[in-house]
Fold:
Amino acid sequence: EAGVVQSPRYKIIEKKQPVAFWCNPISGHNTLYWYRQNLGQGPELLIRYENEEAVDDSQLPKDRFSAERLKGVDSTLKIQPAELGDSAVYLCASSLELAVGQAGEQYFGPGTRLTVT
Amino acid sequence: TQLLEQSPQFLSIQEGENLTVYCNSSSVFSSLQWYRQEPGEGPVLLVTVVTGGEVKKLKRLTFQFGDARKDSSLHITAAQPGDTGLYLCAGARRSGNTPLVFGKGTRLSVIA
Structure:
């Protein structure tokens, strides 16, 4: 079974440019997460989707970040415009809902390493 | 303020040695998870503990959840080079295993 797929794996852009990341979760997983992991830190949740609904986006910087999961499967995370401080690894994860409000194990993708110059 | 404090931040040991890493908080968690992350990869779940005082073993790894569900430890016996990686603890404040709050991790290097 394929794991969580992310692309691109690496991206280098100049500040003020837009950038987008794509995530394909494990088939059948209804919950999808986007995390940001800064160097030397643990992952920090940006947004969580249950199917196509964003149920937790309190940590998403909404002035420049946006995300969508239109059909409840693939998801994209966009930054526009990018700033130097956005350099980080952006991780996507997915899980199966075991029961209402009970998330199963989160499976992480390899991440996209973004460098903003 | 970091909700979950992990220590030590870095650890370099010889193959065959034992080690313990810690995950501490002033907050109570409904569950706590340990992950290992290798360079260029996402974290991989090792274990979930949910009951205060719970001890789980995974081959040479022993995980313990504190009685008050505020802290946890990971003990590795006879470390091997394949154990090298970043060990992350993550806690769920609410039941349901989500959302998770991650610590900064302990970077372990096991030298052959």
